Amino acid sequence: MSKLTLANQLGWSITTMDQLNEIGEKLNDSANQYNDIVNQLSTSDYLGEMLDDIQKMNNIFQEDINGLKKHIYNEHMTYIETQIKGIKQSLDAFS
Predict the structure, then answer these.
(1) How far is the C-alpha of 25 from the C-alpha of 19, rounded, in Å?
(2) DSSP letters along 23-71, please?
(3) Closest Cα partner for 20 from 62, 68, 77?
(4) How far, in Å, are 46, 62, 79, 81, 95 from residue 88 at the CA level?
(5) Euclidean distance between CA atoms 15 and 22, whole angstroms
(6) Are 51 and 42 in contact (CB under 8 A)?
(7) Cα 76 to the chain's mean position, in Å?
(8) 60 pLDDT above the threshold of 90
(9) Per-residue pLDDT at 26
(10) Per-residue confidence at 95, pLDDT binned at 50, 70, 90?
(11) Vertex 21, ends 3 and 7: CA angle to 5°?
(12) Is the pLDDT of residue 6 over 80?
């Protein structure tokens, strides 16, 4: 494999890692905003039985978001990190 090909792969891997981090940040933002809205409803005069449903759905949503973030980190980011290390080692061999 050429040095240029490895450099291109490294660039792609770093960009992908940045995008995965951005996904995680956006997921956090969405989860926090949703949670804040539910909390606002709970301090207002919102109907109790309807609030219970919204709070249950919020809990499910928060769990799903956490599961998705864990999956992205444990599967995707870990794989990309391994690729970056391997590519850097290969590039070092050219030096």
Answers:
(1) 10
(2) HHHHHHHHHHHHHHHHHHHHTTT--HHHHHHHHHHHHHHHHHHHHHHHH
(3) 77
(4) 56, 37, 14, 11, 11
(5) 11
(6) yes
(7) 10
(8) yes
(9) 97
(10) confident
(11) 5
(12) yes
- How would you classify residue 47: left for phi > 0, otherwise alpha for psi between -120 and 50, otherwise beta? beta
For tokens 């949503």, the residue is 61
**Reported confidence tier of residue 1, pLDDT bands at 50, 70, 90:** confident
Query: Which amino acid, residue 10?
Result: L
**What pLDDT, on a 0 to 100 scale, did the predictor assign at position 11?**
97
Which amino acid belongs to residue 84?
I
Sign of CA dihedral 41, 42, 43, 46: positive
Specify the residue for token string 């969405």: 30
| 3-class DSSP assignment, residue 19 | helix
> In 3-state terms, what secondary structure has residue 2?
coil
